[in-house]
């Protein structure tokens, strides 16, 4: 069974939705953020604060490129789409689903932006990050679902429906 790879802005719901989706489809679940934490032996924000964004990105790229699971829902980090070869690697054995949420929804949900470990350059805002990232999410997506007006259970149902044609 192909993996289901969730991409999208931080706080669009990849992790929360992913674990419920995996249970519904009797698949396994993997959150690449947890692999990064394990590899680094510290939290995402600690890596970004202490080692810098470039080190974080290298580590994330390496971790995602090393994923070899099957029959698994994979919640990526919002920055996964920066790494072309890692995304191609995930796409080889996975259906890539973009969980789309509007800028205003993301802004509301990202109250803890300073601590949740978003890979933002100095001077970057949520709006500029959104503008830069959306074309990348669109580029790698096989299909997309909108999470804005739904509860997460409905987002799960929308993903199940969206991936039907690809499995
Ligand atoms: N329709 C929805 N789908 C997914 N998450 C939602 C939805 N509505 C509200 N949320 C909330 O948005 C947040 C998403 O966080 P998370 O799953 O960690 O996002 P990501 O992994 O994409 O960064 C959670 O606090 C979740 O409860
Ligand atoms: O969008 C980002 O730059 C990031 C999002 C985080 O994951 P979530 O998308 O699960 O919040 C995490 O991977 C990392 O700290 C960077
Ligand atoms: Mg997440």
UniProtKB/TrEMBL annotation:
Amino acids binding substrate: 33, 78, 133
Stored Pfam families: SKI (PF01202)
Main location: cytoplasm
Catalytic function, reaction form: shikimate + ATP = 3-phosphoshikimate + ADP + H(+)
Key word Coiled coil present: no
Localization in the cell: Cytoplasm
Cofactor(s) required for function per UniProt: Mg(2+)
Manner of cofactor binding, per the entry note: Binds 1 Mg(2+) ion per subunit.
Protein function: Catalyzes the specific phosphorylation of the 3-hydroxyl group of shikimic acid using ATP as a cosubstrate.
Protein name: Shikimate kinase
Organism name: Lentihominibacter hominis
């Amino acid at each position: 069974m192909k993996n289901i790879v969730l991409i999208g802005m931080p706080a669009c719901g990849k992790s929360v939705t992913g674990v419920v989706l995996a249970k519904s489809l009797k698949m396994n679940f993997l959150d690449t953020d947890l692999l990064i934490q394990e590899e680094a032996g510290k939290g995402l924000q600690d890596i970004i604060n202490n080692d810098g964004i470039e080190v974080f990105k290298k580590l994330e790229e390496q971790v995602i490129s090393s994923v070899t699971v099957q029959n698994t829902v994979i919640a990526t980090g919002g920055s996964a789409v920066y790494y072309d070869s890692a995304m191609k690697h995930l796409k080889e054995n996975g259906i890539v689903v973009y969980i789309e949420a509007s800028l205003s929804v993301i802004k509301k949900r990202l109250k803890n932006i300073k601590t949740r470990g978003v890979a933002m350059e100095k001077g970057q805002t949520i709006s500029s990050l959104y503008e830069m990232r959306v074309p990348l999410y669109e580029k790698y997506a096989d299909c997309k679902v909108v999470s804005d007006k739904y509860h997460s259970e409905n987002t799960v149902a929308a993903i199940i429906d969206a991936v039907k044609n690809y499995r």
